[in-house]
Design brief:
It is a single chain. It is built from 7 helices and 7 strands; from the N terminus they run αααβαββαββααββ. The model has no long low-confidence stretch (mean pLDDT 79). Strand 4 and strand 5 (220-227) form a beta hairpin. It is 59% helix and 14% strand. A 5-stranded mixed β-sheet has the order 2-4-5-7-6, covered by helices on one side. The chain has 297 residues and is an alpha+beta fold. It has 3 domains: 2-74; 75-135, Helix Hairpins; 145-294, Heat Shock Protein 90 (2-Layer Sandwich), CATH 3.30.565.10. The protein has helices spanning 2-34, 39-100, 105-135, 149-163, 185-201, 250-254, 261-271, and strands at 145-148, 171-174, 180-183, 209-216, 220-227, 275-279, 287-294. The longest helix is centred in the first third of the chain and has 62 residues, at 39-100.
């Protein structure tokens, strides 16, 4: 149903553009054939021509935006399909293997571990999609409470170490002075986890990620996540926080994703009166993400 609506929008804009161009041609043909010489008619014709040109420009702009939305939507559908189908297929394969022939206890335990990991991956994908819907609802009330930021950051770093097979020292957390913020613990944890997970995933095989907390001008509590991974083109530093947006390139092909993580981070920061931004010197030069929350008064 949604796809049909977008197709109708594209057809409408194309038809509008063709119609406007046709009017321009008829206008000039009328000048030539009828030899309009009246100044009033020329004045109104010029006004009409200006409106038509403006309409063509607006029409083209809306059409390009609609095409980009379609591309992002298709990429999201493909990513979600992959993220859901792959673990399900893996679980089915291991279950069929267990059903088809007897296996020793060690092998069964290995299969169970793989299936549990796949279930965790499924749950993470579903939670990410559901969270995107929740943070997009501005009328939803947050469960504000006093939070010690350092404790949540440490918990997020510990969870990331558990989820990824990391070498010792590849993910370091340097806590700053104790800082208290007022926020929804679930949303704050989700935002920080997304930043730390992204830093690890986009670092490739040589993971070197540092996480720090600090106070900024006694007004904000900052979480800085720095990596030496794929880096980000400067033209993409703001675009990456848009929903479904992924930076094109080898890193996006290597790391599967739905383009929702940084959108969630930005939404959480905004709903808490904070801010988030990215810093990078370019592809291959790593990146730093800074997430700030107002300090509790």
């Amino acid at each position: 149903m949604a796809v049909s609506g977008r197709q109708k929008s594209i057809v409408f804009f194309l038809a509008l553009g063709i119609g406007l161009v046709s009017i321009i041609l008829l206008l000039y043909v009328g000048w030539v054939v009828l030899d309009w010489r009246t100044g009033l008619l020329i004045f109104f014709s010029a006004v009409l021509l200006t409106l038509i040109v403006s309409g063509v420009v607006l029409n083209t702009t809306f059409l390009v935006r609609e095409i980009r939305r379609n591309e992002q939507h298709d990429a999201f559908i493909n990513a979600v399909t992959h993220e859901l189908k792959t673990p399900v297929a893996s679980i089915r394969l291991y279950l069929e293997t267990l059903q088809a022939r007897p296996t020793d206890e060690a092998k069964r335990n290995e299969f169970y571990g793989v299936m549990l990991d796949d279930c965790d991956r499924l749950l993470a994908t579903i939670e990410q999609i559901l969270r995107t819907g929740r943070v997009g609802v501005t009328s939803r009330r947050l469960n504000f409470t006093t939070i010690e930021l350092g404790e949540i950051v440490e918990d997020c770093v510990t969870r990331t170490r558990t989820r990824h097979p990391l070498l010792a020292g590849s993910l370091e957390y340097t806590p700053g002075p104790p800082i208290t913020i007022l926020g929804d613990p679930d949303e704050v944890r989700a935002a920080i986890s997304n930043l730390v997970d992204n830093a690890v995933k986009y670092s490739g095989d040589d993971v070197s990620v540092s996480v720090r907390t600090a106070a900024v001008d006694k007004r904000y509590a900052a979480v800085r996540v720095k990596d030496r991974g794929a880096g980000i083109p400067r033209t993409e530093l703001k675009q990456i926080f848009k929903r479904f947006h992924r930076v094109p390139g080898p890193a996006a092909a290597r790391v599967k994703g739905m383009g929702l993580g940084l959108y969630i981070v930005r939404s959480v920061a905004k709903r808490h009166g904070g801010r988030v931004w990215a810093e990078s010197e370019g592809p291959g030069k790593g990146s730093t993400f800074v997430l700030e929350f107002p300090v509790a008064r």
